[in-house]
Write a structure and sequence with these properties.
This protein has one domain. The protein is built from 17 helices and no strands. It has helices at about 5-25, 25-60, 60-80, 85-95, 100-110, 115-125, 130-140, 145-165, 185-200, 205-240, 240-255, 265-270, 275-280, 290-300, 305-315, 320-355, 360-405. It is an all-alpha fold and about 400 residues long. Keywords: Membrane, Transmembrane, Transmembrane helix. It comes from Ornithinibacillus halophilus.
Length: about 400
């Protein structure tokens, strides 16, 4: 694509979006409020502790400690250094875009080569267990047992994507950080951690302040993308573009024996996972397996909203976006196939034969998950406002101190 064509395409898209906002101001406002509510009630308070913790662990050398110990595991499986294990585990525990943020930090510190960073980004951005079990399984489908099936397909599929992506870039010649090969030992891991901490000249207060500011800055960016794609999804539906594309998707679904009624929710899920999963849960189709296959795909695909967040995070480095995009399609396909394979052993048979899944225990479990959702709705905004206020105070204090100096 030439630069002139790209300029015309970007300009026309922006003008088109502006006109759509003018024509449908009320609907755009309602969609933005929906995205804002989701961000400040759930996304911000749930991700902030993980982001701050990740920043502190990187600064204090704990990530290098884990990297030395897990090098024999990560290198053969995924062809990335041991420090990649931190991005992988944190990405699974807290959800996207944590894996991308940590991968960028590791690349900036030259702990990863460009190719290794691209491999790592491709499989470290996953949905969090909180989102899969609480929001999707209980919140949308009102079925706590469904969480195990979705989580198993999602995380196993994610690991398989990592194994597949180890072959990416093997023929490319690129400079790698010089790593002295030594025998793995706990003593060496402690030494590396200590040396990493000593290399950081910042005092403890400044390290903690930077961790808070960097985390909040990233989460504000994430919130902007959530609101933007919430509005964009609504506008595309109102101007009849989404239904038009749904007609084409229906023909593909008929070929692969999926109900055509799921085409519109599927397209919505390609843009924003939460909206798509909610729409899929409201479609009563037979067989129910079809609903779960589509949900598994969009969970693995991440949605364009999350992909835009990742693209923004990696844009300041030499990490390319296409490997991540390809891995998202691959993850969606693998997760869908795993859903077909594991649907009966992990969902249908569990419902019939597992003695622990009695109606009483199931009700208690759903009440527990619902209480988690209610607590986020109640305390989430307070946490969001409080930490944004703390970030403002830290910034103002540093500005005043620089003026004095």
């Amino acid at each position: 694509m030439s630069q002139i064509t790209k300029t015309l395409l970007l300009a026309s898209s922006s003008v088109f979006l502006a006109f759509a906002l003018i024509i449908f101001p009320k609907d755009a406002f309602e969609a933005s409020i929906r995205g804002l509510d989701m961000w400040w009630e759930v996304v911000f308070p749930s991700l902030l502790p993980f982001f701050i913790t990740a920043e502190l662990l990187l600064s204090f050398g704990v990530v290098r400690f884990l990297g030395v110990l897990l090098e024999p595991v990560m290198r053969p499986l995924f062809k990335v250094p041991g420090v990649g294990s931190f991005a992988w585990t944190m990405g699974m525990a807290s959800g996207y875009p944590t894996g991308a943020k940590i991968s960028v930090r590791l690349r900036e510190e030259n702990q990863l080569s460009q190719i290794e960073a691209e491999r790592l980004v491709s499989f470290t951005n996953a949905s969090s267990p909180l989102f899969i079990f609480v929001a999707v399984s209980v919140g949308f489908f009102n079925d706590a047992k469904l969480g195990l099936l979705l989580a198993a397909c999602h995380y196993i599929g994610n690991a398989l994507v990592g194994v597949c992506m180890r072959f990416y870039g093997r023929n490319e010649t690129i400079s790698k950080p010089k790593i002295k090969k030594e025998k793995v030992s706990l003593r060496r891991a402690f030494r590396v951690m200590h040396e990493t901490r000593l290399k950081d000249p910042r005092p403890l207060g400044e390290i903690m302040g930077d961790a808070v500011l960097n985390s909040i800055k990233t989460l504000v960016m994430v919130g902007g993308f959530i609101i933007l794609f919430s509005v964009l999804t609504k506008l595309l539906f109102l101007i009849e573009i989404t239904p038009l594309v749904a007609i084409l998707v229906e023909s593909v679904f008929q070929i692969i024996n999926l109900p055509p009624e799921l085409s519109l929710p599927f397209i919505a899920g390609l843009f924003e996972i939460t909206i798509g999963a909610n729409m899929i849960s409201k479609e009563l189709v037979d067989p129910f397996l079809a609903n779960i296959i589509i949900v598994s795909f969009i969970l693995g695909f991440n949605g364009f909203s999350v992909q835009a967040q990742v693209a923004s995070i990696i844009s300041k480095t030499d990490i390319r976006f296409f490997p991540y995009f390809f891995a998202r399609i691959l993850h969606g396909v693998i997760a869908s196939l795993l859903t077909i394979i594991l649907y009966y052993p992990l969902y249908v048979n569990r419902q019939v034969f597992d003695p622990r899944d009695l109606p009483v225990s199931n009700t208690t479990q759903e009440e527990t998950y619902q209480s988690i959702l209610d607590s986020f709705s109640q305390f989430g905004p307070v946490i969001t406002v409080t930490f944004i206020g703390i970030a403002v105070l830290i910034t103002l204090r540093r500005i005043n101190r620089n003026k004095v100096l």
